[in-house]
Amino acid sequence: MNINYQSWKAYVECPKKYFLRHVEKKPPLVPTNDYYRLYGILVQQFFQMFCNIWRFKIPYMPIEEVRFKMNVLYKNLLAVSQVTWPQSGPGQDEILEQACLDTFAVMDGQNQNYFLNTQSEVDISVTISSDVNINCRVDFIHKDALDEKSILIFDGKGTDKIGKNIDKNQLYFYTLLYYKHTGTMPVGIGIFYYRFNTYSPIPLDGKIMDSFQTKLSQDVTNMVSAPIIATPCSKSCKYCEYRPGCPESTQYFAKRAKPSKLDIPDGVTEFSF
Ligand code: SF4
Predict the structure, then answer these.
(1) Residue 153's Cα: distance from chain center in Å?
(2) How far is the CA of 205 from the centre of ligand 1 (A)?
(3) Atom 5 of ligand 1 has which residue's CA nearest to it?
């Protein structure tokens, strides 16, 4: 059994969602729209190539070259994405242009040298029993040029607001696996906001990691052996791709629904529960 961050997260939200998405691999029942993810995926794809390959061949990449390479990546990305273009908001060309400018600003903020010691999209796998592996793919791992043990792990975000949709557990998940794999605890973890060229640290200490490891161990034990039971709630079901026709979700929302005024008998002004 392979567990990664996405499957663990789905399990924590609702075991049934995890089972449908990651075990049965059932296709989504609601149409997907990649529009809001295009910018982030494009920038991340660029950095994956830049950090791991291009940086060593091209000592300094000018903006024209960034634009050229981004164009190629963007064409390929659009070819495999399902995009519904909104009536307002950045269009196809504007997303590309913004991604080029922001990426170049990030690279040039460090005179591009920072990326000599940075790897992107790094796969880490930890075997915890004969049939369970835990895996992750880390956006960025940076090693200090003067101290190999001084490691920074960070996650790139394309959000248009600093602090929006922060998922600290994702970084704790990466950190724990990195530590189990290498025996080295990173000196820092955080979020890098591409649009703002800004790094925002996430708190990290032994106590936080101990409690995260306890929680993850318990969840992994349940994923392996506990029965799959749906745990509907507003947050988990809101964007769940299996919500249409999900009886547990339907029941949950029916119970929470306020009675219609049409159902209130004459003489009764309101129901009390
Ligand atoms: S709709 Fe809700 S209850 Fe049903 S699988 Fe999704 S998250 Fe679980």
Answers:
(1) 14
(2) 34
(3) 17
What are the pLDDT digits (tens) for 6-42?
999 999 999 999 999 999 999 999 888 999 999 999 9
What is the rounded distance in angstroms from the CA atom of residue 218 to the CA atom of residue 200? 29
What is the per-residue pLDDT for 22? 96
Ligand 1 nearest-atom number relative to CA 252: 3
Domain with CATH 3.90.320.10 in the chain: 116-204
Top CATH class of 116-204 equals alpha beta
Instruction: Give dist(CA 73, CA 43) in Å, integer.
Output: 9
Distance 222 CA to ligand 1 centre (A): 18
Tell whether ligand 1 has an atom less than 6 A from the beta carbon of residue 236.
Answer: yes
Residue 150 scores a pLDDT above 70? yes
Residue 204 CB less than 6 A away from ligand 1: no
